[in-house]
Amino acid sequence: MSKNALVIIAVVGVIAIAGIWLLKGSSKTTPTPSYQASPTSQESASPSAQVSQNLVRITSSGFEPQTITVKAGESVIWVNENTVSHQVNSVVHPTHQVYPPLNTVGMLPAGESKSLVFADKGTYKYHDHLNPSLTGSVVVE
Ligand SMILES: [Cu+2]
């Protein structure tokens, strides 16, 4: 009787240990790091994809695209990809009074970026105050 009890305990013990190892093994294999990393990288990729939608690049040749069309409530981000500073200001040079919020974008040193939310429909013209011949406009629909 005591022998049988020992056998039962031993069998139960082996099953329990095997079960624990199986659980440990499965929990180790299921959440592969690559699977966990991909949702977070997708999450960080989607906002940047949204940003790149309304992205105005500033190069030595000016604003690209020169006219960008966005929906009301969206933001436009200006990225200075040039090696010198550019300064985004509202028309009309040099007083910049037509749409003052554009002046909050202002000075962009090389490599810097800044965004502005456009809440209301309209056409907003701006220029590079440091190179006033470089112009652009934001059309908000
Ligand atoms: Cu100006």
Fill in the CATH topology of the largest domain.
Answer: Immunoglobulin-like
- CATH homolog superfamily of the largest domain: Cupredoxins -  blue copper proteins
The percentage helix is: 25-40%
Order of helices and strands: HHEEEEEEEEE
The average pLDDT score comes to 80
Shape: elongated
CATH class of the largest domain: Mainly Beta
Strand portion = 25-35%
Radius of gyration from the CA trace? Answer: 30 Å
Number of domains: 2
Largest sheet: 5 strands, mixed
In the CATH hierarchy, the architecture of the largest domain is Sandwich
What's the tally of helices? Answer: 2
Order of strands in the sheet with most strands: 3-9-8-5-6
Uncertain segments of ≥5 residues (pLDDT<50)?
27-52
